[in-house]
Amino acid sequence: MTISPVVASLRAQAALQNEWLAERLTTLLPAIMAQSGIDFWIVVAREYNEDPVIMTLLPAPAMNARRRTILIFARRADGTVDRLTLDRYGYGDLYIQAWNPDHEAQDDCLTRIVGEYHPQRIGINVSPTFALADGLSHAEYERLLIALGPTYAERCVHAEALVIGWLERRIPAELAVYPELVALGHRLIATAFSRTVITPGVTTTDDVVWWLRQTMHEAGLRAWFQPTVSIQARGMPFTEPPTRNRILPGDLLHCDVGFCHLGLCTDQQQHAYVLARGETSPPDGLVSALARANQVQDLLLAEMQVGRTGNQVLALARARALQVGLQPSIYSHPLGYHGHAAGPTIGLWDMQKGVPGASDYPLADDTVYAIELNNVATVPEWDDQPVRIALEEDAVLTGGNIEWLNGRQTQLHIIK
Predict the structure, then answer these.
(1) Are the C-beta atoms of residues 269 and 392 closer than 8 Å to each other?
(2) For 103-156, how does the pLDDT look when each residue is reduced to its tens digit (9 = 90+)?
(3) 375 with 389: CB under 8 angstroms?
């Protein structure tokens, strides 16, 4: 099974991402600025201490803020947005280079431009709730207020809604490619959970982890966290520390894998079963356990409606799951430029009654989610031992409907 990137050439990747960025800046940003009520957005960062947002606004192959970069987005009365950059090197056609360092200091240039636009609400990247919207460093904040002066400093507001809206929303071109990224992740897991990688009695979970990591690296995919592979087995429950990491017949395997490609991230968890001697299929109890976890997925997706907050979705889905006798834990999250991306969290594994702040944000159209959860069920063939089926599949919420980007696991991978 081939593991190769959707777009192999780095040059082609950069060109495609820049096409997307140009479209996002032209079509998406003006709408989000209007929705957030901000008419002037300042994004400022220094090299190697980049605001998380600025790297989503700079065209490839930019890899940092180059000394100190200031981006300015000024919304005009007709709804269009002027895009300016105050930096020494420029960013091509996407931004007007508004600062000449031979004639003016950078902060003086900022002061002048603000006075010319005379904005009423100036958005800055400060947020007590979302880390991704809190990228303005303290020193840059102090410096920015001095440059703005008392009148305009008083007009500064948190740009939280603008930042989250920019990061979480996907344009049609991105959504068209996302299923291919998720399919690539499915192929990666299918190969990892096969005889190509695993020899029962020989291979360890660490071997599979590093195969996943190395394969992603060689395929030009950036792992955004270290993959994990774990074992449950009869007499070796998930509730106790593992007694071994060598994979044996009769083991139930679990993996958690995520990567970024073309600036977009995936996140997936699936299970495999290693057939024991004399078996031709997994125990019925494990098959049933997977089906019950699929049922939790169905109940959660049914509650993920535009306008509901993450906390509302969590409460409704959990109530329905408990009502039908399931034992769920729901901890789903947005996907996009980041793995744990901008937008409403839908539970945390240790906060099943709701997450203040991050889960009070409403779901929006044209957003992508990692549907991450688990369900516990007993397996009769394992002396009614509890088994945790932890699944994670990627889905898109668009047009008011949510659907899987590339299907989901409904059958265990089988290793013979």
Answers:
(1) yes
(2) 999 999 999 999 999 999 999 999 999 999 999 999 999 999 999 999 999 999
(3) yes
Interval 337-348 mean pLDDT = 97
Can you name the CATH fold of 170-415? Creatine Amidinohydrolase (3.90.230)
- Measured CA angle at 39 (ends 38, 44), to 5 deg: 80
pLDDT at 274 over 90: yes
Looking at residue 4, what is its pLDDT?
80
6 has a pLDDT exceeding 80:
yes
Answering whether pTM is above 0.90, one says yes
Distance, in Å, from the CA atom of 330 to the CA atom of 192, rounded to the nearest integer, reads: 26
What per-residue confidence (pLDDT) applies to 313? 98
Q: Which residue has the tokens 């291919």?
A: 180
Q: Six-digit token pair at 88?
A: 């020494």
Q: What is the pLDDT of residues 346-361, one digit of tens each?
A: 999 999 999 999 999 9
CATH fold for the domain made of 10-166? Creatine Amidinohydrolase; Chain A, domain 1 (3.40.350)
Which has the closest alpha carbon to 187: 215, 163, 229? 215
Nearest CA to 43 out of 34, 80, 33 is that of 33
Q: Which residues of 14-27 are buried (b: 16+ CB within 10 A; e: fewer)?
A: bebbbebbeebbee
Residue 269: predicted pLDDT: 98
Alpha-carbon distance 255 to 135, whole Å? 32
d(CA 265, CA 224): 8
- Token representation of residue 263: 């600036």
CA dist., res. 303 & res. 301, Å (int): 5
- Answer whether 10-166 and 170-415 agree in fold: no
pLDDT reported for residue 5: 80
Distance CA 71, CA 85 (A): 5
Please give the Cα distance from 365 to 225 (Å, whole number). 27
| Extents of the domains making up the chain | 10-166, 170-415
* Dist CA 305 CA 308 (whole Å): 6
- Hey, is 308 helix, strand or coil? coil
Residue with tokens 């100036």: 122
Alpha-carbon span 375 to 212, nearest angstrom: 25
Do 100 and 113 touch, CB atoms closer than 8 A? no
